[in-house]
From TrEMBL:
SUPFAM superfamilies in the record: GlcG-like
Upper classification of the organism: Bacteria, Pseudomonadati, Pseudomonadota, Betaproteobacteria, Burkholderiales
Organism: Paraburkholderia polaris
InterPro entries xref list: GlcG_carb_metab_protein (IPR052517), PduO/GlcC-like (IPR005624), PduO/GlcC-like_sf (IPR038084)
Protein name per the record: Heme-binding protein
Length: 138
């Protein structure tokens, strides 16, 4: 597998909605993008905060552009004391909730961004979805 299909992205969105409802009892926005950061699929659960729409998309985008999760990007910004603006990309965010999506061979397929929960919970859900992708493709 070398890219994410819309069908697979939709399955991730369905899994995200079920996990958010069952594990957290709250609605979320979820974005799935390709390896270049371009949107493949997006879902906003009923009642999810409007501000979470753009945040979910930016979290997925950031992961692909920086090649790491948003948590790892935040850690880099802090450890190197670098302002995010130095990257000259206004779409980057260091808010937790973004995870890379890879196939069973470790090849980058894209990323997922989650917003609507507490930052740590957004990140946990994004990481669960990255693991779910391996089950869907395995």
């Amino acid at each position: 597998m070398q890219s994410l299909s819309l069908e697979l992205a939709d399955k991730l969105l369905a899994a995200a909605s079920a996990l958010a409802r069952d594990a957290y009892g709250k609605p979320v926005c979820v974005s799935v993008c390709d390896a270049y950061g371009f949107l493949i699929a997006f879902s906003r659960m009923d009642g999810a905060p409007v501000r979470s729409i753009q945040l979910a998309q930016q979290k997925a985008y950031t992961c692909t552009r920086m090649g790491v999760s948003t948590v790892a990007f935040l850690a880099r910004l802090r450890s190197e004391d670098v302002p995010i603006g130095f990257f000259c990309d206004p779409l980057l965010t260091a808010l937790p909730g973004g995870a890379l999506l890879a196939d069973a061979h470790g090849r980058l397929l894209g990323a997922v961004g989650v917003s609507g929960l507490a930052p740590a919970d957004d990140q946990a859900l994004a990481e669960q979805l990255a693991t779910e992708l391996l089950h869907l493709t395995g």
